[in-house]
């Protein structure tokens, strides 16, 4: 089957459709996911085609949604839960970290928890607080959860397929400002490992590691740096728990420098763990300290200040220049 060009949001829709067709135990649940098709129309048309018992409009109660999904998983279903916006997940945080993440270990492996929680996250859409944040590090810190984020349409399709097929709970962060970015999706391909990072642009002078919405910014920075004769390698991390440190290490051993980029605040963000691990692993290869670029340790600002808050091309290139200056 030839690859089809589609937006990231359409790729997620297609992946959900494939899962619903392939397994009658797959259910979709969330606020406005059915008749409305989701606030971003990601689930558009699914309730119409699969019915209200497979694509379920829930009350506005995130804790209840996740708690119900846990009960369904105990009965052999594979629920896919949508949290409407990133900041709305916290009423369900207790259910996720004290129940969903722990059931497998608590039962000594007897109980599986095949639950996917889809969370649109990040800024760039001019929304207010609780609609534009990046809480991925909070979930990556919790043992028992897989935490992933696609940066392109192909990964959006395949990583969701793999998440739904997993017997472990997966937090699937969707970069909402990339929903309309288009790319080739081959639905007949054989995907690589779910948690493997990928070198998406080779380079020799410095490694840029990013995930989700920041991969495009990293690629733009590499293209801009190339015009000045600098060769940057870009690694799409794809997974925040577990993290594929081996691929990052191999890249840094080639380039000698690393800048980690994410939208979330730098303070105690995913980049902190990557910086520490790579410093341990690559101490004798590093020609400069590992630098981090991210959001500020402050509440998400009003939309008029959003461009000042979010990491952009200039902030990434500034970190690149500082690393190359050592």
Automatic annotation (TrEMBL):
Pfam families, A to Z: Transket_pyr, Transketolase_C
Gene3D superfamilies: 3.40.50.920, 3.40.50.970
Names of required cofactors: thiamine diphosphate
Domain Transketolase-like pyrimidine-binding: 6-181
One MF annotation (Gene Ontology) recorded for this entry: magnesium ion binding
Alphabetized InterPro entries for the sequence: THDP-binding (IPR029061), Transketo_C/PFOR_II (IPR009014), Transketolase-like_Pyr-bd (IPR005475), Transketolase_C (IPR033248)
Domain of life of the native organism: Bacteria
SUPFAM superfamilies according to UniProt: Thiamin diphosphate-binding fold (THDP-binding) (SSF52518), TK C-terminal domain-like (SSF52922)
The entry's keywords: Oxidoreductase, Thiamine pyrophosphate
The protein, known as: Alpha-ketoacid dehydrogenase subunit beta
Species, as recorded: Streptomyces botrytidirepellens
């Amino acid at each position: 089957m030839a690859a089809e060009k589609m937006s990231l949001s359409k790729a997620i829709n297609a992946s959900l459709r494939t899962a619903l067709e392939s397994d009658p135990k797959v259910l979709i649940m969330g606020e406005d996911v059915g008749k409305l098709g989701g606030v971003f129309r990601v689930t558009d048309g699914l309730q119409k085609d699969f019915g209200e018992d497979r694509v379920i409009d829930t009350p506005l109660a995130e804790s209840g949604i996740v708690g119900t999904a846990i009960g369904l998983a105990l009965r052999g279903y594979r629920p896919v839960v949508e949290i409407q916006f990133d900041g709305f997940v916290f009423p369900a945080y207790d259910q996720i970290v004290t129940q969903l993440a722990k059931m497998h270990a608590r039962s000594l492996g007897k109980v599986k928890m095949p639950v996917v929680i889809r969370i649109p996250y990040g800024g760039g859409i001019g929304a207010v607080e609780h609609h534009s944040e990046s809480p991925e590090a909070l979930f990556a810190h919790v043992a028992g959860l897989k935490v992933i984020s696609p940066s392109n349409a192909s990964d959006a399709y395949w990583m969701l397929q793999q998440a739904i097929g997993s017997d472990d709970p997966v937090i699937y962060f969707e970069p909402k400002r990339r929903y309309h970015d288009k790319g080739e999706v081959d639905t007949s391909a054989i995907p690589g490992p779910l948690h493997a990072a990928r070198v998406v642009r080779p380079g020799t002078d410095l490694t840029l590691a990013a995930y989700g919405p920041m991969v495009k910014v990293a690629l733009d920075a590499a293209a801009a740096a190339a015009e000045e004769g600098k060769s940057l390698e870009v690694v799409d991390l794809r997974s925040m728990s577990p993290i594929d440190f081996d691929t990052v290490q191999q890249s840094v051993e080639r380039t000698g420098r690393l800048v980690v980029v994410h939208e979330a605040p730098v303070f105690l963000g995913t980049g902190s763990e990557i910086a520490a691990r790579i410093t341990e692993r690559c101490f004798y290869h590093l020609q400069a300290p590992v630098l981090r670029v991210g959001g500020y340790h402050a509440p998400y600002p009003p939309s008029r200040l959003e461009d000042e808050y979010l990491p952009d091309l200039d902030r990434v290139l500034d970190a690149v220049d500082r690393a190359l200056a050592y």
